[in-house]
Specification:
By secondary structure, this protein is mostly beta strands. The protein is built from 1 helix and 4 strands. The protein has one domain. The protein is about 10% helix and about 60% strand. The chain has a 4-stranded antiparallel sheet with strand order 1-2-3-4.
Length: about 80
């Protein structure tokens, strides 16, 4: 699984959300800043979607941060840490 695929499906990235909303994967942008055999450091940017009680979108808030992804020997992602 690629870094971007992992980020689109992991739960840890929601730590960057500030209002208990959900991540709009269509707005997710990933910029790799460092890479070695065991880790990847990336800057991420996305919209957090905030819902009203009626189920309508109330607001979209831009969120960003840095993450470190841990890699297995084959290059697959084994976990993520928000920096």
């Amino acid at each position: 699984m690629s870094v971007e695929e992992y980020l689109r499906s992991c739960r840890e990235l929601s730590q960057l959300c500030g209002q208990n909303g959900w991540i709009d994967n269509d707005t997710l942008k990933v910029q790799i800043e460092q890479r070695d055999a065991r880790h990847v450091v990336a800057a991420v940017d996305f919209d957090e979607v905030i819902m009203e009680g009626a189920g309508c979108v109330a607001e979209r808030v831009r969120r960003w941060g840095k993450v470190q992804l841990h890699l297995r020997d084959g290059g697959d992602v084994s976990g993520l840490e928000v920096l």
